[in-house]
Input
Amino acid sequence: MIVWIDPIRIRLRKKTIFLDRDGVINEDREYYVKRPDEFVLYPEAATALRLFLQLGFQLIIISNQSGLGRGIISWDNFQKIHNIMIKRLSFYGCPPAAVFYCPHRPEDNCFCRKPRPGMLVEAISNFDIPSLECFFIGDRKTDMEAATQAGCRGIRIVRKGRRTPKNRFEVQNLLEAVSLITKFRLQGD
Ligand SMILES: [Mg+2]
Ligand SMILES: [Zn+2]
Output
């Protein structure tokens, strides 16, 4: 597990929006986000993340990057992509408090690779995060499985045109996730 923490922003016992990276914050690629020029933020991402901060959440990114373990993404490019993400999100006023990456391949059988909840569990226990008040926003079924196992609510992003959202925990982009979470708060649910 590779853990990056911003000591200025991380807070103990704070409600948190956990976010998958590729396919949620930035466009996913057919064959991994391998180079800095392949890191493209979705147009609505920064606005949505700023709204989460205004709602009193901190942001923690939880990302499988098996391209590292497979030797498809170089460590140098991995680091550059990470730096670009932090720089852009900071520029737009929505920097994450921490980022967790799993660099392993499925056959490594680690505890951190989603659908296993290792990265979420580690973040929740290290920072004493109230998991019941948290959400994990991802775009895959494996993200939802990790959320359930870690005891927080999963919200799945199903991009327009892929298929129609099936249930009330599926939305089409991060801004719709903001509305959904706002509704939860109003209902005190
Ligand atoms: Mg994803
Ligand atoms: Zn792992």
Remarks:
- The chain has a mean pLDDT of 95.
- The two ends are 32 Å apart (CA to CA).
- The chain has six helices and seven strands.
